[in-house]
Specification:
With about 550 residues, this protein is mainly alpha-helical. The chain is about 60% helix and about 5% strand. The longest helix has 28 residues. It is globular, with a radius of gyration of 30 Å. InterPro entries: S04_transporter_CS, SLC26A/SulP_dom, SLC26A/SulP_fam, STAS_dom, STAS_dom_sf.
Length: about 550
């Protein structure tokens, strides 16, 4: 008995701390692969974190503050070996909408998002994500990619004072094209060119494990490795060019500028803010200003991360626990608020790199976290010279694959009506991202409710007496899985009307749970058979309608 109890306790412990499922099997081979994967992802994460902070409207160091905590927390509590948590393009865009470039608002939002996500995990409310349909997700993703990508055109051109609102951004970007800086344009286009070329080279590579000669396979591995860390290579090269120009007294490029030095202090997140004029903004005021962000950002963060985790779990043949993933993300955000992070989620691009480089366990995230911490500790002074145009090129190349032109075509072929929530979400998201999501969810909800309220009758079988009107109706209920009181009430009224007109209704193929409800309800004139064909046989075997059938 004690042994059984101990086994149960250990199983419960493993479900709470998934690290216990793989740590006892950890070996040197896994360590080698995790080191390689973690290093590779780290070299991708650092430039992306700097760039995504720009999207969120925050100083670049906040991107790095947000990029390391996930690796340590997820290693203990996560159930996917591939996924990496950190700042992403979509979350950065959502944060920009609500925080207005204020780091205090960003940190408070991170804390509250973490609390909400952890609470959802403990209450097992992950099912709420099912209300966000695939067309809504795709519409939002495509619109976000366009918004983020075009938002970086101003940095490629070196333009200043461009509004954040999308339509105004489009207008003023084109209006100020004559003010573009030649140095930024040339550098930005060069960075875009090299990023695209390296990406195309990587995609064109065949498998390195085929029958090609050793020299060819080695060359492929080298090209693949360089293409994988292309973001870091381009940012380093652009920074070197900018630094050389600055030390010689030539100011050709718009630079990132001054950044905070060193690691962020580990301290309780600020719950209030004092603005320059002395006014104190309380925690309640901050939460009120964040408004809908406290619903949109936690849900979208969880949705993005779990979708990525499920995709790679399916690809690599293992299972994840959605509620445990929700808990890991929530705890990451809570702890991240103690190091001045803004909300994070799973990154598809970095997760793909992690998987492709052969990561064997979540421990690879620790290596990535260490790389980010080392960058914060020793490289922050050099980040002053990073050209904004190079970071803009990194962002544009990162979000461009999110614009999937095949989705509308697929929706048209499968179910044309699904284009409606897709288009509503896509179009409205250019006005305000959160309104696009809400609009798409509302439209999807109305479509679902209409289908439930007005179901199509699959089989209606009527029995005629010569030229008389139909006297019997057989209803195929084999696809009815549940009914509620409203349905029972409406059926009662319908059967009464049928009885007054001398028409009988026969229910066929009722599931046991539904039949039990209908029998309990004591419907007037209720008749049923196990199958539709039984009702048909009995009806056709008689020359006239038998009301007692």
């Amino acid at each position: 008995m004690e042994r059984v109890t101990g086994v149960r306790w250990y199983a419960a412990l493993r479900s709470c701390f998934p690290i216990l499922t793989w740590l006892p099997r950890y070996n040197l081979t896994w360590l080698k692969m995790d080191l390689i994967a973690g290093l590779t992802v780290g070299l991708t994460a650092v430039p992306q974190a700097l760039a995504y902070a720009e999207v969120a409207g925050l100083p670049v160091q906040y991107g790095l503050y947000s990029a390391f905590m996930g690796g340590f927390i997820y290693c203990i509590f996560g159930t996917s070996k591939d996924i990496t948590l950190g700042p992403t393009a979509i979350m950065s865009l959502l944060c920009l909408t609500y925080i207005g470039g204020d780091p205090v608002f960003a940190v408070v939002l991170t804390l509250l998002c973490g609390v909400i996500q952890t609470g959802m995990a403990l209450l097992r409310l992950g099912f709420l994500l099912d209300f966000i349909s695939y067309p809504v997700i795709k519409g939002f993703t495509c619109a976000a990619a366009v918004t983020i990508g075009f938002g970086q055109v101003k940095n490629i051109l070196g333009l200043k004072e461009i509004p954040q609102q999308f339509f105004l951004q489009v207008y003023y970007t084109f209006h100020k094209i004559p003010e573009a800086r030649v140095g930024d344009v040339i550098l930005g286009l060069c960075c875009l060119f090299f990023l695209v070329m390296l990406m195309l080279m990587k995609n064109s590579l065949g498998s390195s494990e085929d029958e090609a000669p050793l020299l060819v396979r080695s060359a492929r591995r080298l090209v693949w490795s360089l293409a994988t860390i292309r973001n870091a290579l381009v940012v380093v090269a652009a920074t070197s060019v900018a630094y050389s120009a600055e030390v010689t007294g030539h100011h050709f490029f718009s630079l990132t500028g001054k950044t905070a030095k060193g690691l962020p202090p580990f301290k309780a997140p600020p719950l209030s803010e004092t603005v320059p004029n002395g006014t104190v903004i309380t925690f309640g005021d901050i939460a009120k200003d964040l408004g809908g962000g406290l619903a949109v950002i936690p849900l979208m963060g969880v949705l993005e991360s779990i979708a990525i985790a499920k995709a790679f779990a399916s690809k690599n043949n293992y299972r994840i626990d959605a509620n445990q993933e929700l808990f890991a993300i929530g705890l990451t955000n809570i702890m991240g608020s103690f190091v001045s992070a803004y909300p994070v989620t799973g990154s598809f691009g970095r997760t793909a790199v992690n998987s492709q480089t052969g990561v064997c366990s979540p421990a690879g995230g620790i290596v990535t976290g260490v790389i980010v911490l080392l960058s914060l500790a020793f490289l922050m002074p050099l980040f002053f010279y990073i050209p904004k145009a190079s970071l803009a090129a990194v962002i544009i190349c990162a979000v461009s694959p999110m614009i999937d032109f095949r989705v509308p075509v697929q929706l048209w072929r499968v179910k044309r009506l699904d284009l409606l929530p897709f288009l509503v979400t896509f179009v409205v998201s250019f006005w305000e991202v959160q309104y696009g999501i809400v609009g798409g969810v509302v439209v999807s909800g109305f479509m679902l409710l209409y289908t439930v309220a007005r179901p199509k009758v699959k089989k209606v079988i009527c029995m005629f007496i010569c030229s008389s009107p139909p006297r019997c109706l057989v209803l195929d209920c084999s696809h009815v899985s549940s009914i509620d009181f409203t349905v029972v009430h409406e059926l009662t009224e319908l059967l009464k009307q049928f009885e007054l007109r001398g028409v009988s209704m026969i229910f066929a193929g009722l599931k046991a749970s539904v039949l039990k409800v209908l029998l309990t309800a004591d419907l007037p004139g209720f008749r049923h058979t196990d199958r539709v064909d039984e009702a048909l046989q009995l009806l056709t075997s008689s020359n006239h309608y038998d009301p007692l059938f």
